[in-house]
Amino acid sequence: MVTRSWPLFLFLLLCAELHFNPSLAYSLKNCTFAYYNNAVEPWVGCTGRSLTSVPDDIPKNATSLDLSFNLILRIHRADLSSLSKLRYLEIGNNEISDTDDGAFADLAELKQLDMVSNNLTKLKDNMFQGLGNLISLSLEKNYIKYISPLAFQPLVSVQRVILRYNRLQQMSDIVPVFQMPNLHELVLDYNEVASFQSDDLSFVNSNLRSLWLVSNLLTKFSITKDIFPQLQSIHLSTNTGFEWDVAEPAFLRSLVMLDLFVFDISCEMFKVMLNSTESLQVLSLSFMEYRQDEALIDVACKNPNVTSLNLSGNDFVSINDTFLHSCSHLTELSLSSNFLEELSEFSLSSMKQLQHLNLNQNSLNTVPLAIRGLSALQFLDLSSNFIGVLGCSDFLNLSSLTKLLLNQNSISVLRACVFENLKQLKVLNLRENKVHVLVDFFKVKLQKLEVLDLHGNNLRQLKTGDFTNLTSLVSLDLEGATCYMIHKRALEGLNQLQTLTITPFFYDTISFTGMPYLENLNLHLKSITVTRSSEAKNKSHFSNLHYLKNLMIKNVDLHFQTSPDLLKGLRSLESFVADQVFTASPHPDTFKYTPHLTSLQIIQSDLTELNPEVFLPIPNLLNLNLSKNQLRSLDFLAQVDLPALRYLILSNNEISVINETVFQSLPALTYLDLDNNPFICDCSNAGFIQWVKSNNQTQVVNAYQYTCSFPEAEHGQKLLDFDIGSCWMDFGFLCFISSTCLVVLTLVTSFVYHFLRWQLAYTFYLLLAFLYDSRKKKKGAPHQYDAFISYNVHDEPWVHREMLPALEGEQGWRLCLHHRDFQPGKPIIENITDAIYGSRKTICVISRRYLQSEWCSREIQMASFRLFDEQKDVLILLFLEDIPAWQMSPYHRMRKLVKKRTYLSWPQAGGHSGVFWENVRRALETGDAPMENTNLLTGPGQ
Fold first, then answer.
1. C or N terminus of the chain, fewer CB within 10 Å?
2. Fold entry, domain 751-925
């Protein structure tokens, strides 16, 4: 039986031919890839990505690579070095002007190389090094002027070279091409070669089978040597004064086809050409001069060997009775792509052996009378004309016709009588006409018709029994531009039908009976209301189609209503396409009748959610397409068990956040398309981003081109460019670190407080003193007081009673006392530092209470810092009471001062207070010179 591809099931066909290998299924930055031919050849596509260089993440075992339509300027030595298994490489439509030597050297398995539409001007010696297995090379549409003599030397297996649209001029330019030992086809169309002569070729023998020299303005074609023993076809253009010189017919003994784009050639030269081709069978004459066309055709048809004549692409408006009279022995004739308006009734009458007639793309208004009586005709192409009416006798006596093409005309009425004599007809194509009515079509008895195509017409109704007699029909396409009525039994009798496409007004009235072998059903629903009753809504319409494998329902009316029994009886169904069918999630029982379903498309249905229970009856699902809906979440996938699902399309939805754990329920997933969704670029998608980058099983198609829609600050940015580093915080570990640090800090703080608090306090005040001292040095201010008296408030009576009268009253020293001379409102620490550094000396009146006082401790510490910093005698220690050394131990700095310096002791003065105050006077009178070792003070520490 004759079968044909069904484009309406393109998704199914893609899934049947496209296979994915988990070892390579991951996301590429600038490319996508898939497997063809039962997962043998992985194909990588990088077209139209504005690439300026070859991507570095192409899988190493890719066998096909398409880099066309980019901005690549040069192929470097390392660009393709890792792709040793590559068999097909396309780098056309780039800006390549040069390649490194040996740029293809590692592509030992390459079979096909396409470099069309680049900027190459010359082919260098080592350009094709390593391509010993290359079979096809295309360098079309470059600017090649020069080919190195050694350029093609490595191409020992090449059979086809395309150099169309370049700037080659001389035979010497193309001699290197002919040096390839296995060259079968050479295409040199649209160059600047003016002469082709075998004398310019230095070798003896060639395996060339097809030579193209179209549009070179060729003036001479000369073969004077037997160098093309296997040449089978020549395609060339001639010019005024063209010369054909073939010394012996034996030099073209294998030539069976001559394709001439004739502009102007004499009949004499044309005869010479035909006489030098003793085996010629197929002759093509295009773009002939109007004045010569009839004479040239007469010469051509008088050649008894020519059985096929192609006259396409000329300016014929009409053909008279004598135009083709001498072509009686032709079996094939093509008059396509002319301007034919008519053929005279007897213009083809002499062609009793004609089997193939092509009249498409002309201006015929009716079926030419000339075809009547062509009893040997098997193929007739009348497509793309202006035929409006078919008469009952239009195909009279075409008893051998098996294929009739009438598509793309203006036929409005189809009468049964038109085809009643075409008993051998197998294919009838009436696609894209204006047929609105079938008149008595049930009378047609085309017992051998296998394909009937009425796609794109304006049928109004199909009546009962219209196709009853088409018992061999395998494919019937009745998809209309508008919907139409179908009587309940209109499709009965199609016992062999395998593929059916219809556009019914009410699909619920159709009886799909009498079609036991139907495998493919396509319903295009365009009516306002497609169900007429609640009873019809709840009944199954496909229950008799037990062998149906592929079902497509496309609805352009949102009033379509479905029931849980929609697919009842379709136990063999493998693919279901529902286009604008479900306005809500399908009922959970919808697919319980289709356990073998492997491919499901629910598209353009405005679904916002799906019930996970829908998928329970179809665990063997391989391909799922939910594109062009309004799904906001993929959580339903986490609740289903689809262990075999490999191909998932979710493009053009409203998905913004994806939990990567969803895909854990899809262990076999190898292809995922999420294009055109409004992704949020924040930490809610961090897991998905990480999964896309790291998983080695699922290819997320065009993932590196996904853009952010939210938040506004990230709008337009790439989803995979979002920095997820800050999102990966281990809060458990963070808590552990925090608590550990807190415990350690507590222990350290306790230790420091207990053992080092005085040292730290002392260090702090030394720092304050240092800062103050630095400021004072910069200012260079004179001392305001002779001495600052540092004492405890409990010792204040002694200071007023004993010290002030003696030092201020009797000796006249200027003393600074905190209760009297500190500036009110000023920080106390600042008052202390101003007093110490504003006095020449500091007198510390030490008692046990003094040592326990915090402020007194700060004063003596700051004074001691000044002592060590300035290295001057600025500190006077005056003890009011005897304090043992062990009591001063907690105040380690005090003990060190007492050990290193002499001091005054009031208790030891006893009744000799005058001597005591004299010693104080002597200490105060000591100048600012550096300290000496002389002992001016007396006490136990001397």
1. C
2. Rossmann fold (3.40.50)
